[in-house]
């Protein structure tokens, strides 16, 4: 594959993750030099697939980073002109200390990345937010489609002990506050349930959810309390599902927000606003040989369905994969890796 003309040097935190790996790959293909951060440089599960990418030998540098260690962040961000901040806790395990294990890294980690960006002269930062900064929002008018103007109800989340949306909401608001105070341009991407072909050797939680769905589990990951899909909810993800999106679309959305200097604020990133029941029904339709559970029609009470809701990204030229394409790419990837038969 031929590389594009040499472009900027961009830092991608969380570069070994599901979305991060695709972002690194697309940036390299577009001609960028990339500083990608990982948790452990000696862990081949984090590094091998990155080092194997086209152009990695000449334009990829890996850095070991701890979200609460400013010096490790600064080392990765120095000598770059842009930052795409994706690293954030996404654990499906019950956290022993929510402040230390989830809220601290998400919120304080974001602040430290932004501080390192400012200290290094970086003018533009794109942050991976989430639809968990938009929902749950039970007080939003029932007859209005949810969009970037809708914010998660923190009191509701505290009442139900929904830690993940709290962490994502506070981290996103901290990014905007930092931008306002310092002049560093910040844009956020708010993806829904991210699925698609996975590059790392280990699948992420949303793909694990699809595996459980295909295997007929009607109790999908509900035993834990710290991850967006599971915190305090039933198997229909009442407070967490807003629609799905292809991992390559999410990666490209971050790059478009970086390249479009007028892009600011939030960018909803889903192929459509749908209910979890819609997703499960489409999986069952496409793969009738699997024991996919059936669900009530409206699994997300008060959530109005909508086509093409990601107007800001569509106006930047992003053409979203359809739900059918997302499911097919995801299932074929899972089959190729031996995760399902």
From TrEMBL:
Single GO MF annotation: oxidoreductase activity, acting on the CH-OH group of donors, NAD or NADP as acceptor
The residues covered by the NAD-dependent epimerase/dehydratase domain are: 10-263
- List the SUPFAM superfamilies: NAD(P)-binding Rossmann-fold domains
Could you list this entry's UniProt keywords, alphabetically sorted. Oxidoreductase
Matching PANTHER family: CINNAMOYL-COA REDUCTASE-LIKE PROTEIN (PTHR10366:SF369), NAD DEPENDENT EPIMERASE/DEHYDRATASE (PTHR10366)
* Protein name in UniProt: NAD-dependent epimerase/dehydratase domain-containing protein
Where does this protein come from, organism-wise? Aristolochia fimbriata (White veined hardy Dutchman's pipe vine)
